[in-house]
Amino acid sequence: MSQPEVIIIGAGIGGATLAAALAPSGRQILILERGETLRDSPEARDPEAIFRRGFYRPDELWLDAAGGSFNPGNYYQPGGNSKFYGAVLMRYRAGDFAPLRHIGGTTPGWPFAYEELERYYSAAEALYQVRGAVDQDPSEPPRSAALPFPPLPDEPVIADLRARLQAQGLHPCALPLGVDLDAWLQGGATTWDAFPNTRGGKMDAESCALAAALRHPNVTMLTGARVTRLCAGGRQITSVELNHRGQLRRLSAPLICLAAGAVNSAALLLASAHDGAPSGLANGSDQVGRNFMNHNLSAVLGINPLRRNDSLYQKTIQLNDWYLSGGPSGEPLGNVQMLGRVTGPILAAESGLPRRLARYIADHSVQLLTMSEDLPRPESRITLRDGQITLKWERSNLEAHALLNQKLARALRRAGWPLTLSRAFPKRSPSHQCGTCKMGDDPAASVVDAGLKAHDLDNLWICDASVLPTSAAVNPALTIAALALRCGDMIRERHLT
C-alpha cells in the first residue's frame, strides 16, 4: 500500500461518496472501514432472522442517560447503514435551509441556501441512479436536471390508495428511490426496506459510490480497521490510530476525512482528547456531540377487515401536503411515505403480537411512515462514559408529530381503511441520526465550516450526517451524498491541485 495522501474514515454514504468525488484526482486515497464486506446468506431475505433474531445487528451496547444499555442497531460494513436502508433518496425542501418556525421551536437554518447544493443533488441522483417523478410533488424544490429513471410502478393496492388520496385533494407522489426493481426481486420476493443488499438491486453506498471510487487504482480500502484515536499536534492531525484485525497500527496522511456516522464521528473526536484539547478534538466550541437529532417516526397502519393487501413491496408513494404547513398556525408537520411491505412475521417480531393475529393485521392493512423534524437542542448529546458511548436524546416537536399522525389517520379512514393504529419508533432504531458536529460559519457555535473543514484543525474534514445543522423531515441519505460531492470538489480545488 502506497503512502496515503488522503485518509477517509468510514465507507458509508458520506465516506464512500467523498471517495468517489476525490478518486479522479489521482492522489493516493485510503478508506478505513471498521467492518467487513457483507456477504450473502440465507438470512438476507429471511424476515424471522432479520426482525426477530436480529441476525445482522452488531454486538454493541450504548448507554442511555439513565445508565441503562441498549443495542443501537447501527451497521458496520462497506456501505454502512445504507446496506439496509429503504433507499429513499430525497432532497431537502428549499425551505429547510432557512430558519423555519415549528410548533416546537425555530430551526437555525444553514450557512448556505438550497441553491448552493442543487447541482450536487443532481450529481448525487445520477450517481445513485434515482427513480422518481418530480412533477407530482408540489413541495419539490427547483432543479437543474431530471431524475435519471422513471418511478417504480405502484402495485394495485397502492395505486388504489393513491387514487383515493387524490380524491381528497391530496397530492400523493412518487418516492424517489435507488432501487432496480427487477434486479432486486430476482434475489427474493421481499421489499427492500430493512433487508440487506447482498444480491443486488438496491443502490447503496457500496454498490454505487464505493464501486465508482475503487475502480480507480489510486483508491484502496482497508476493512476490519477500527479507528480508535486521532492524534493531533497544534492545528494538525498527525496520525490515525487503529486496530486492524487485532493489530494496533498508526497511519498518517496530509488530509484526514472523518465519516464514521453522526454518533461514532462525535465519539471518536471526544475519545481523542489530549492536553491541548481536553474536551476532545475539534471541540473548541463545546459543540461536538451536542445537537443530536433523530427523526420523530411512527408506523401508521390503516386496517380494513374486508380488504386485503396483497402487495409485495408497496414502498412507492409519499405525501408532502403537510410538509411545510398543516399546523394550527401554518407550522410544518412533516413527510408521510409508505413503509416497505410489513408481513405477518415482521409485524409479530416488531410488535410482540401473536403470529396469527399479526398475519391477519398485516394482510388487511396498508402500512405507512410519518416523519417529523427533530429540532437541534444542545442538551441532546453524545458523551463517553468510561469509553462507552452514552446517548441522551430529548425528543422535540412531538406536538407536530402527533398532528401529522392524526391527519394521516383521517385521510386513511376516508380512503377506506377505517381503523388506524400507530406506534413510535424506539430509541434503538437509528432513525436518521444527525447533528453532533454541526456545520456553521461561527467557530464559537459550530464544529465545521460551510466546506465541512473543522474550525479548529487545518487538515480535518467531517463528511457525514453529523454536520447537518437541521434534520428536516426527509430521509437524509441524498443530502449527505450531495454534501460529500460538494466537499470533494472543494478539497480537490484547494488542496489537491
UniProtKB/TrEMBL annotation:
InterPro entries: FAD/NAD-bd_sf (IPR036188), GMC_OxRdtase_N (IPR000172), GMC_OxRtase_C (IPR007867), P2Ox-like (IPR051473). Residues 430-484 form the Glucose-methanol-choline oxidoreductase C-terminal domain. Coiled coil: none annotated. It holds the Pfam family GMC_oxred_N. Keywords: FAD, Flavoprotein, Oxidoreductase. Its cofactor is FAD. Residues 196-295 form the Glucose-methanol-choline oxidoreductase N-terminal domain. Signal peptide: none annotated. Belongs to the GMC oxidoreductase family. This is GMC family oxidoreductase. It comes from Pseudogemmobacter faecipullorum.
